[in-house]
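S.,

As promised, the adenosine-5'-diphosphate run. Input:
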Amino acid sequence: MTDFLESNITYLPGVGPKRAELLSKELNINTFKDLLFYFPYKYIDRTRFYKIAELDPDLPLVQIKGIIRNYYAEGKGQGKRLVADFTDDTGQIKLVWFKGLKWITSSYPAGNEFIIFGKPGVFNGTINIVHPEIEATEKKAERINSALQAQYSTTEKLKNSFITSKTISKLIGTLLKQINLRLPETLPQYLTSRYSLMHIHDALHKIHFPSNPPELEKARYRLKFEELFYIQLNLLRYKTQRNNQVKGFIFSTVGENFNNFYFKNLPFQLTEAQKRVVKEIRKDLGSGKQMNRLLQGDVGSGKTLVALLGLLIAIDNGYQTCLMAPTEILAGQHYQTISQLLNGIDISVKLLTGSTKKSERNSIEAGLTDGSLNILLGTHALIEDNVIFNRLGLVIIDEQHRFGVAQRARLWQKNINPPHILVMTATPIPRTLAMTLYGDLDVSVIDELPPGRVPIKTMHFTDPERNKVFGFIRDQIREGRQIYIVYPLIKESEKMDYKDLEDGLDTITRAFPPPEYCVSVVHGKMTSANKESSMALFKGGQAHIMIATTVIEVGVDIPNASVMVIESAERFGLSQLHQLRGRVGRGADQSYCILMSSDKLSKEAATRIEVMIRTTDGFEIAETDLQLRGPGDLEGTQQSGIPFDLKIANLGKDGQIIEYVRNIATEILSDDPGLESGQNIILKKELKTLFGKSKIWSNIS
Ligand code: ADP
Ligand code: MG
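Predicted complex:
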């Protein structure tokens, strides 16, 4: 049966080579199994018919019974299309095709009654439906008896080749008919009976062809349970194995450097949250297990200090350390901050990035090999093979969402035994998502900002109100504050984006002319030297305004900058807006975040802006982001090594199931860590099928 499911999709009646190629390219469906696991994204009540008079373009998919009156061609060249007038007793709409024109007119002869199904739109003031599904009235009558008709997502290309949701449904129907034996269970019997799960065979039938809503619900639950359960089981098993097999360096002492720094140099009291996290880290480092910890803390919560304390513990125990940041600017900033904090303490700190000069590089490499270099800061230049440590004991990775699991893994290999790893992220991640994204890590949270911060005020203005905003900026500059103005940079239209920035720069320099005002610019296309000098201008306080693309998104710390203007704010995602806003509000002054947008906003963009105005709580923002966009779009998830193209579960909505199955997986592994017992063999086998090919895990273990 398993072999049968692995059959190539071309063996399915109704799938020729051309369709097979399309299904493979567009939907990644290559085998029977792929097709069977291509689940509907929704179900439609196909017992409901609309009247033409009821149609409006805001309706989702609708079904209408009527007559195709006549066909005619419209437009020329690229815009050439076939149009049909379609009527019922309440009115008339147009049906439109851009492809397959001949086939349509011969398959659905004018003058006959049909049932059409599609999404109403408007063109030139008339309602139309582009590329509708069409069915003869009698055929429909014999087929449909279920109210719930599965809808499958398709692509433009597929639709153009007439592979519609209906086609996919038909193919799945054909496939299910060919499965004559019961499909074998993929979960042990003790789980299906304990948690009342529908048999996989039935679930796979019912998910595609449900007879009623409760049955559909059971099928979905079974499939979601399974999908999420195996992800958790995989993560937890990996974590258990690692804990059992990998020894960690034991940092038993808290020594001179730590104490010197803590009691002499530390410029302020640690917050309670910082203290708690330092304790958690210290405990890991002394445990004999290799630390793999995620440190979450909102922007400005003081992660750098916690990181530094960790580094000092490692150094006190005779180990070298490194801290990796995602951009040169941020790495440079860490270098400055940490060198300053360590002033008067005999620790050697160096910075390594892509633009480090050869001579400096040589001296760094020498210091690494002879062990005299204690802390190496840098960008992903640190990962390169020619960076060889003598005794690397602790690796800290800042802003994890920019790095993938694979990169993490490469740092593991920089010592014979893997160093301790601390991953820091300023992107608050909802709990259940963290369980999946970082499910193999232990998690610490800094949930408290240093005292004395005045909450940032967030305001929204539309482009026509720009003068008001400029007035406000002038007032702020008069009070001695500095201003960021940020432009979105989206890869697909990079050229246009830079144009936005240049136009913006023009407008700004006209409104804030020299010599009274000084404006500096930083963007990704500048050389690092130019970037650096622009940054220095702003940091040093000479520049009043810094115009930037999102390069400043992470980590820049300039306490005197108290206004963040975000241009085209509607084009940013929520977590990005939140990150940008976190650049201000670092000093004691009232800070402001000004969201500029056009006055026409999509509903989603309006929601994002609303949320930004309402709250500064990063976790609340992350939750909303997850609801709005789904986890696949959250930064970093693509490279996370977790299969985020979940087939049925939704990390945003199925949080409860995630927690539930994680507990179940934990329990199973605590009784049987190797999954060796008879009843668990099936789990081991499934894990192998599902994750056996995953490069990332095998890299590490
Ligand atoms: P992030 O978590 O975003 O990396 P940083 O480590 O850059 O935050 O800290 C933000 C600012 O808060 C820095 O200027 C830092 O010196 C300051 N800071 C950190 N911890 C404390 C504290 N306990 N009390 C007061 N200020 C602090
Ligand atoms: Mg930071």
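The two ends are 32 Å apart (CA to CA). The first strand starts at residue 42 and ends at 45.

- D.
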